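A reminder before we start the practical. When you read a complex entry, don't treat the lines as separate problems. The point of joint prediction is that each chain is placed relative to the others, so the output describes one connected object in space. Small molecules and nucleic acid strands, if listed, are placed in the same frame. In the example below there are two entries. Take a minute to note the order of the lines before looking further.
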Amino acid sequence: MKIKESLAVGSFAFFGGILRYLIGLVLNQPTGFPYGTLCVNLIGAFCLPFLMRYIVARLHLSDQLALAIGTGFFGAFTTFSSFSVDAIRLVNQQQWSAFAWYVGISMVGGVLLSLLADYWAVKLTHNPEEQEVSQ
Amino acid sequence: MTILLVGLGAALGAILRYQLTRIGNHIASEFPLMTFLINLTGSFCLGWLTGSQLSQPVTLFLGVGVLGGYTTFSTLNSELSQLWFRRRYHIFFGYWLLTYGLGLLVAAAGFYAGL
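Here is the predicted structure of the whole assembly.
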């Protein structure tokens, strides 16, 4: 069951979920564009790969802490279910251009930010000068 | 109080996602099946929850909390990026298009099932 790992994931997810909720309260408009969900999703899409492929190695984080921050915090901070249901709400309200922008930016922006994070992480890891500085 | 409901829900949802992903690791496949299924089932359930218009605390706990913590956008894109860097372009485009296409479809299906 991995009880200890589950508790680590759960406790970090507690804060990830709350932060998503608070950002949503500030940025999401009940009848308008879901800026809050878009914002947390794009931030998470960049931060998760960058964390897992750079920060973990650089700061020598333990596997358990990496799991808690990655799967727990960022997994719960970002959400796919709110994305899809928000998009359907825009369809129901016949806000076609908002729907197209929301789905388009999420679909393309999310994967581009993850690619950028992975690319940057690899570049930093294999840059000899960068490693020199860290010593 | 509402903040605690959201946080506790997110913790439960994330633990469920973690346990399911661990089970999924035993399936030898390059297609990230577990995240795929998690995001689709979560979208259906949140659609249903939104359609049935339950009381606000229930919606906050189950919707924003449990289902928000259960489904994930960051892992989806991180997996897509890994597929791209490993040059698994067919799986990349299949996973990308199927997740969004079916995700929107099941969210709508859940919504109308809940009305």
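Discuss with your neighbour: Residues 3-126 of chain A form one domain. What might explain this?
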